[in-house]
């Protein structure tokens, strides 16, 4: 499924650029609801705000540019859907070949893949120059090594490398997956989706409305809050296994892309208040997945770009773990530069960081491939 790797490649490069771009200029969110209207629309439509056609075009262009950059955060939802997609297909194939899934081995293999690269990310952070280091190395470093960054969440969640919060979310969803698979086999996928969506909305309502607390729990500190996107990915993965041609024709042939574009305004509107925000991560994640996966159908056919994006998607885990402290460190050096040449440099930085993070994961995979036979024998 080259298109899935391409979609992940687009998403991870988008996220890397987002972390650099928002460090270069601390733009306000263009999708923030303020005084009954979208802030950037209010700015653009205010009488006297446009003094020339050039200024009008500049305002529109900058608003769209900032919006595209900041929407990269929705790439998290794309990766959650892609994870559910891949895990469901893996479990289904294991059942087809072996009759059942050996859950002990299943979980062990995934932890064996996740943790070494995660620990390498910590080592790189400690020894590599050019890292943005806003906090001291203290007891939180040892907690971070466990991956359980929801412990002491206000102090730990974004510690050292803010992007690592996603690791603790993945751990929780991987731990939940055997239960979700068992439910899928007992009640069917439609019922599982209803259960997952209801559970996710209830968990989000608890932290947002019933017992308001830090938004870090909803973002990923409490895995059930992101269960809807993960379960949606499982459903899409099984649909793809049953009806690959029809599913890819819909998703990659333009209909999925169009559906994502039509869904996006509703997703953005859900930011209005705490009640509608219950649906935000599901809607933005689904919209982002449909748009990016739909575009990947075209990008996969472009000879050079398709292969490069697929390569970035293949090694997106390493890129994710490594990039952010570098992105912030180097971008701070050009923080006061004008758009030209700052933005071309940010794009160049994105490419370099993708090569660096991807190379580290490639090396780690080679090392783990040598150790895996010994692990299985043990």
What brief labels describe this structure?
two-stranded antiparallel ribbon; 17 helices; mainly alpha; 378 residues
Summarize the structure.
The chain has 378 residues and is mainly alpha-helical.
Which helices and strands appear, and what pairs or packs with what?
Elements: H1 2-24, E1 33-34, E2 37-38, H2 39-45, H3 53-70, H4 75-98, H5 103-127, H6 139-146, H7 153-156, H8 165-187, H9 189-210, H10 216-221, H11 227-242, H12 244-252, H13 255-269, H14 280-299, H15 303-314, H16 316-333, H17 339-377
Antiparallel strand pairs: 1-2
Helix pairs in contact: 1-4, 1-14, 1-15, 1-16, 1-17, 4-8, 4-11, 4-14, 5-8, 5-16, 5-17, 8-9, 9-11, 11-12, 13-14, 16-17
Give a structural overview.
The chain has 378 residues and is mainly α. It has one domain (2-377). The chain has 17 helices and two strands. The chain has helices at residues 2-24, 39-45, 53-70, 75-98, 103-127, 139-146, 153-156, 165-187, 189-210, 216-221, 227-242, 244-252, 255-269, 280-299, 303-314, 316-333, 339-377, and strands spanning 33-34, 37-38. Strands 1-2 form a two-stranded antiparallel sheet. α1 crosses α14, α1 runs parallel beside α16 (316-333) and α13 (255-269) packs antiparallel against α14. The longest helix has 39 residues, at 339-377. It starts with a helix and ends with a helix.
């Amino acid at each position: 499924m080259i298109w899935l790797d391409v979609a992940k490649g687009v998403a991870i490069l988008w996220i890397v650029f987002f972390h650099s771009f928002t460090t270069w200029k601390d733009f306000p969110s263009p999708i923030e609801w303020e005084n009954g209207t979208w802030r950037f629309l209010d700015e653009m439509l205010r009488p006297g705000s446009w003094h020339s056609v050039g200024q009008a075009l500049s305002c529109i262009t900058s608003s769209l540019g900032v919006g595209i950059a900041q929407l990269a955060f929705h790439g998290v939802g794309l990766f959650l859907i892609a994870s559910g997609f891949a895990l469901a297909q893996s479990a289904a194939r294991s059942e087809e070949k072996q009759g059942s899934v050996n859950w002990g081995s299943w979980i062990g293999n995934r932890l064996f893949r996740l943790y070494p690269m995660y620990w390498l990310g910590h080592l790189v952070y400690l020894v590599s120059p050019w890292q943005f280091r806003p906090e001291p190395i203290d007891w939180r470093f040892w907690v971070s090594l466990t991956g359980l960054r929801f412990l002491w969440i206000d102090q730990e969640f974004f510690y050292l490398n803010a992007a690592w919060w996603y690791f603790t979310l993945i751990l929780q969803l991987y731990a939940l997956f055997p239960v979700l698979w068992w439910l899928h086999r007992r009640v069917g996928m439609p019922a599982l989706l209803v259960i997952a969506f209801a559970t996710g909305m209830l968990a989000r309502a608890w932290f947002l409305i019933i017992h308001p607390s830090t938004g870090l729990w909803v973002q990923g500190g409490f895995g059930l809050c992101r269960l809807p996107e993960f379960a949606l990915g499982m459903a899409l993965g099984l649909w793809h296994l049953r009806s690959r041609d029809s599913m890819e024709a819909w998703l990659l042939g333009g209909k999925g892309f169009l559906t994502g574009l039509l869904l996006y305004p509703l997703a953005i509107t859900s930011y209005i208040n705490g009640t509608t925000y219950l649906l935000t991560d599901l809607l933005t994640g689904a919209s982002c997945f449909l748009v990016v996966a739909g575009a990947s159908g075209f990008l996969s056919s472009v000879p050079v770009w398709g292969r490069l994006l697929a390569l970035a998607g293949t090694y997106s885990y390493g890129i994710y773990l490594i990039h952010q402290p570098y992105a912030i460190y180097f971008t701070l050096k050009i923080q006061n530069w004008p758009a030209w040449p700052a933005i071309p440099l940010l794009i160049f930085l994105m490419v370099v960081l993708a090569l660096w993070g991807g190379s580290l994961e490639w090396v780690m995979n080679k090392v783990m491939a040598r150790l895996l036979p010994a692990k299985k024998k043990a």
